[in-house]
Amino acid sequence: MRLCLLLFALLLPVSAQETMIRQVFDPLTDTHVEVLALFTQPSNGGFLPVRVKIANNLTSPRSVQLRFDSSGGYDSRLQTKSSFAITAAAGKTVTQDIMVPLCSMLNGYGQPASVSAQLSGSLGSASNTIRSNSGMDAHSVLLSEALFTPNASALDAVALKKSGASYGGHAFAGKFDPKQLPNDWLAFSGYDSVLMTDTDWSNVPAGARNAILSWVNLGGRLVVFSSSRPSPATLGLPEDAGFGSYEIQPIGSDLSLSPEATIDLVSLKNPVSSRAAAFKNDFNGRWPLQGRFGAQAFHYGIFIAVLIVFGGLVGPINLFVFAKSGQRHRLFITTPLISLGASMILIALIIFQDGFGGSGMRRILMEVRPDSGQNAAFLHQEQISRSGILMSSRFTVDPACLFTPVPIARSRWSRFTDDYNTRGSFNLQPGGGKMEASGDWWQSRSEHGHALTAVVSTRGRIERSADPKVFVSTFDFPIETLYFLDESKQWHRAEAIATGKPFSLTPVDATVAEPALAKEANAFTTRNREVFNRARNRPNHFIALTAKAPGIDTLPGIRWKQTQTVITGPVVTP
Questions:
Q1: Are 385 and 359 contacting, i.e. CB atoms less than 8 angstroms apart?
Q2: How many CA atoms lie within 13 A of 32 on its CB side?
């Protein structure tokens, strides 16, 4: 009997999605709501793709509201909230993919993130929570269902052993169904590697393929296992992976993976650090941009002087001059007035010293891909700012992107650090290709660091003219310096490049170009430096330096004193 039950269990289909909620409102008409997480394990930060299906077989329209709360950190001190409303007309079935923002676990004192979903509306109510089961510093991996089923247990066991944990579990990867992948790159933004077979890749819908290729251009690692050793071109993979990488690995017909080799493939052999570890460690006291931004001194002397004067006025002068003997009743008037005056002076001093809004610096690493009809820029933006008096903490981020606070060096100004007491609500509401942000992204009289990863449309490029020695920039901003590595790996340089004006390149020795580019690389955080170093020596590609390129705008009151951008990409030949 037990053997029969075991065989029956093995024959049951194993879902490649995580059912968060299934609420049957009317069994007679099968009117129900289904909320599916398309990946079985959420990443540490980024987004969780969720597919919502409303089967409304009733005679009136029905609406649901979904509220998500992603938390992480010691005692859930860090939170990210979002909500979505979906309506289904009478007699209609509606299916919609939504991107749920995830909280980043950015200090070393907490547990992996969890995501809670709460359903309400005219089809009933329900709730559920799913949790990540991976290490906070581990590479975040997605594994296709075909590879997950025969290999997950062995991979989890070795991953747990390598992590050194003495208790609990350690999931090596989340699972997905290639046919059900979403077509938004944000779904993959929190992951470091995606592993699948060549058959899986052929089953990925066209929109999801483009999303994965965008994620690779940003630095992702796609590993395709095949028994026939196809070339990247055969699989429809572009020759140039941008900031990321493609890899084709052999596999037997049983789809069995070596646990040790697979874990090393996505960790030790990954050319860049894990995203979670980079967000947690790269900005904490070793951030070159923060060093350039400098520290803000606090003028204690002025405030001490005001307090001394206030003490003298509200004490002896108030008692012996303003409300002297026989007139003590005046204390009920003079004391509040002196206190109010001192408060107004302190407020004026704070406004005079800190002002409204704030200032900051940004540094951007951008890959421009005009080839293959992409016409897109893939960018990583680091930014640090110091705020004064803020009138609002709400703002819009356009376009929707991976946007996270980063723990910076501890000081009296820093509000988000790696301290276990760090708290914050970093709410994001995606919609219409943008995100509404609210909460603790910025606080008055504070220093804040953020990291953004985005994909934006652009027609900017560097083109060869009819004369192969003459080039033209179509970027709508000037470029101070441009380096170009030709097919023979000879470096060239040009300066003061204006939009639409032809320019020529001058050959330069590698001893001139490479130190200059190394200086630019070292001005980024560790992971962005690794990404740039992988991409900077590609033949027939350029590297442009400019302080005039626009960045991704966030809080409107912040005045960006400097936005330094490093742009890479292929030179387009007509």
A1: yes
A2: 10
CA angle 452/453/454 to nearest 5° reads: 120
Question: Which candidate, 222, 183, 174, places its Cα nearest to that of 201?
Answer: 222
Residue 414 near residue 408, CB atoms below 8 Å: yes
**567 lies in the same domain as 494:** yes
| Tokens 């493609």 -> residue | 246
Question: How many structural domains are present in the chain?
Answer: 4
CA distance 205 to 98: 17
The whole-number pLDDT of residue 1 equals 40
Strands 93-101 and 424-431: unpaired
Same domain, 115 and 202: no
Question: H/E element holding 377?
Answer: strand 376-387
- Decide if 401 is inside a domain: no
Q: What digits encode the pLDDT tens for the residues 237-273?
A: 998 999 999 999 999 999 999 999 999 999 988 888 8
Which pair of tokens denotes residue 189?
């933004």
Q: What is the pTM of this model?
A: 0.88
Tokens 């296709």 locate to 144
Domain that holds residue 552: 357-393+442-574
Partners of 545 in the beta sheet?
A: 481, 566
Residues forming a β-bridge with 257: none
* 383 shares its domain with 513: yes
Residue 264 φ then ψ, to 5° = -65, -35
The contacts of residue 222 (CB under 8 Å, 6+ apart) are 193, 194, 212, 216, 237, 244, 245, 246, 247
Alpha carbon distance, N-terminus to C-terminus of the chain: 71
Summarize pLDDT for 288-320 with one digit per residue, the tens. 999 999 876 666 666 677 677 777 777 787 677
Long-range contacts of 390-394 (CB under 8 A, 24+ apart): 390/356, 390/357, 390/358, 390/442, 390/443, 390/444, 390/555, 390/557, 391/356, 391/557, 392/557, 393/438, 393/439, 393/440, 393/441, 393/442, 393/443, 394/436, 394/437, 394/438
Is the separation of the CB atoms in 480 and 546 below 8 Å? yes
- For the record, the structure tokens of 532 come out as 């740039």
pLDDT in the model for residue 352: 64
Q: In what order do the strands lie in the sheet with 114-121?
A: 126-131, 114-121, 62-72, 78-88, 424-431, 434-439, 395-397
Dihedrals φ, ψ of 189, to 5°? -65, -25
Contacts of 179 (CB under 8 A, 6+ apart): 203, 204, 205
Q: Cα dist. 29→32, 51, 57, 58, 91 in Å? A: 9, 22, 6, 7, 10
Q: What is the mean pLDDT of residues 390-401?
A: 93
At 392, list the tokens. 């609002």
Burial class (CB in 10 A: 0-12, 13-18, 19+), 483: buried
Distance, CA of 319 to CA of 327 (rounded, Å) = 9
The reply to whether 521 and 389 lie within a common domain is yes
**What is 388-402 written as a DSSP string?**
-B-S---EEESS--E
Is the bond preceding 250 in cis, omega lying within 30 degrees of 0?
Answer: no
d(CA 434, CA 217): 21
